[in-house]
């Protein structure tokens, strides 16, 4: 079966839109998400613009603060002001940052309930105890797809150990009773491990790398990769090879990526609800 | 080979003692660890007393604040005062707390650099990005034993998914290039998975549960369990059965437990060094 991300994303977009509309009407607020970009990385600009576009569809005012360059101290001051500003309901720092700024140190200054990206250490640690109010959007997207298509929890192999994908996803899957194996570039015998798990999540950044030798007829394959080659976008999974054998597979594009783009706003909404509940706005 | 925890712990005790002595002499401070106990759980009292004893050996003043009962608000106020008190260098909340108090919500009020237990969400999330300044002591103890006995990183199976053991240990092992599988009570075919990994860490709370059918001649077995039955202490691993077959095994007692008791003070020392570096004391 093709696990179509567009369907998952569009259903979630409708729910988010309706919930945000309700909040705007009930509380008379104009929800705002503040994006912070340092430098001029072109991919980062594209992502920021797509967030502005999607946010607008949802009734969220997504604003971009761009710095050509900025010191750590000044950036932290800017974030602390945004934390204290009750008109700003979410804050995202676009990556990459220039080498002079450590991404984790920067984002750890964001109040946990405004951490739309889910990348603060506090929110990551919260996942340990099943508090999933805010979680990295890519990890949430993988879970959304599995749940939407009612894949039975079982054994999952994640080929990725980053703080953006592999680690938080492992926490979300453990919270749903999956047995989870985290693999990476140093893993020996990765094919055997991949085949022994009924869910295989791949985020390795190598176009078309995973072929049918990594799967069985029972595999559900979730392709997190987004690789650009000219105008062509491909995943980390060789779709033609794997889709002939595996039970389920996500396409690229139209799979995890579009659900991730939507799940950012799930974080935003959950943070907004928390701010309302705690009378912070 | 018997992986003797006493050797690991005693070597670490010597290092900690010497480092703390150096700090006391150089900065003229009297390091203090504040234990907070609510209620009268007898096991909790035993653990608190053993920390006081071990701390004294290390030149640390371990003090116990006992409340028969206390509200969340009052307890948070007490912790915030201790955070602000520069004479207190570490804070630990003894578990269990009464049902009216949520352990995670309570400890998340501790400043990360005074979080001797390593249980704040912030420090747990920090492990994602390889910042191991403070980590849950049991997870650190398992790694210490593996490293002391020079076990080659490979594939590790952890039977436990808690925030105290399984999840932080997975992070520490990933940081050391292990491929990690987290299993738990809902895992199917746990014996196969256990046998396929050269390191097996067990923390299930069932005395003598794991027998030789879970291991191979290549297995290194780390037994985190501490089960009391009358005066007898046993682990989760049936030592007689498994030690005949496995390559390496930790005993209980004298294995992970004694290293854990020491590693609490590794957290304390690392937090103390941070407080000195950041001129907080």
Automatic annotation (TrEMBL), chains A, B:
GO terms for cellular component: cytosol. The keyword Hydrolase applies. It catalyses: (6R)-5,10-methenyltetrahydrofolate + H2O = (6R)-10-formyltetrahydrofolate + H(+); (6R)-5,10-methylene-5,6,7,8-tetrahydrofolate + NADP(+) = (6R)-5,10-methenyltetrahydrofolate + NADPH. It comes from the Archaea. Residues 3-117 form the Tetrahydrofolate dehydrogenase/cyclohydrolase catalytic domain. Its EC number is 1.5.1.5, 3.5.4.9. Residues 136-274 form the Tetrahydrofolate dehydrogenase/cyclohydrolase NAD(P)-binding domain. Keywords: Amino-acid biosynthesis, Histidine biosynthesis, Hydrolase, Methionine biosynthesis, Multifunctional enzyme, NADP, One-carbon metabolism, Oxidoreductase, Purine biosynthesis. GO terms for molecular function: methenyltetrahydrofolate cyclohydrolase activity; methylenetetrahydrofolate dehydrogenase (NADP+) activity. GO terms for biological process: L-histidine biosynthetic process; methionine biosynthetic process; purine nucleotide biosynthetic process; tetrahydrofolate interconversion. The keyword Amino-acid biosynthesis applies. NADP(+) binds at residues 160-162, 226. Pathway: One-carbon metabolism; tetrahydrofolate interconversion. PANTHER family: C-1-TETRAHYDROFOLATE SYNTHASE, CYTOPLASMIC, C-1-TETRAHYDROFOLATE SYNTHASE, CYTOPLASMIC-RELATED. Homodimer. Belongs to the tetrahydrofolate dehydrogenase/cyclohydrolase family. Catalyzes the oxidation of 5,10-methylenetetrahydrofolate to 5,10-methenyltetrahydrofolate and then the hydrolysis of 5,10-methenyltetrahydrofolate to 10-formyltetrahydrofolate. This is Bifunctional protein FolD. It comes from Ferroplasma acidarmanus Fer1. The gene is folD.
């Amino acid at each position: 079966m093709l696990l179509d991300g567009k369907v998952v994303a569009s259903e979630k977009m409708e729910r988010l839109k309706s919930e945000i509309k309700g909040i705007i009407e009930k509380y008379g607020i104009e929800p705002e998400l503040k994006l912070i970009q340092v430098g001029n990385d072109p991919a980062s600009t594209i992502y920021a613009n797509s967030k502005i576009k999607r946010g607008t569809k949802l009734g969220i005012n997504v604003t971009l603060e761009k710095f050509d360059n900025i010191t750590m101290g000044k950036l932290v001051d800017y974030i602390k002001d945004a934390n204290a500003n009750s008109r700003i309901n979410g804050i995202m720092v676009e990556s990459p940052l220039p080498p002079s700024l450590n991404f984790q140190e920067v984002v750890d200054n964001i109040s946990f309930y405004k951490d739309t990206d889910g990348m603060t250490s506090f929110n990551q640690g919260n996942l340990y105890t099943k508090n999933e109010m805010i979680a990295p959007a890519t990890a949430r997207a993988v879970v959304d797809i599995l749940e939407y298509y009612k894949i039975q929890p079982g054994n999952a192999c994640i080929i990725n150990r980053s703080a953006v994908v592999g680690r938080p996803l492992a926490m979300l899957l453990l919270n749903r009773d999956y047995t989870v194996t985290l693999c990476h570039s140093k893993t020996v015998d990765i094919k055997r491990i991949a085949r022994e798990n009924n869910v295989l999540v791949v985020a390795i950044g190598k176009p078309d790398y995973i072929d049918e030798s990594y799967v069985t007829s029972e595999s559900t394959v979730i392709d997190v990769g987004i690789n650009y080659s000219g105008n062509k976008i491909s995943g980390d999974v060789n779709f033609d090879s794997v889709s002939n054998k595996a039970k389920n597979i996500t396409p690229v594009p139209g799979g995890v990526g579009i659900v991730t783009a939507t799940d950012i706003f799930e974080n935003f909404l959950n943070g907004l609800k928390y701010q309302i509940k705690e009378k912070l706005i």
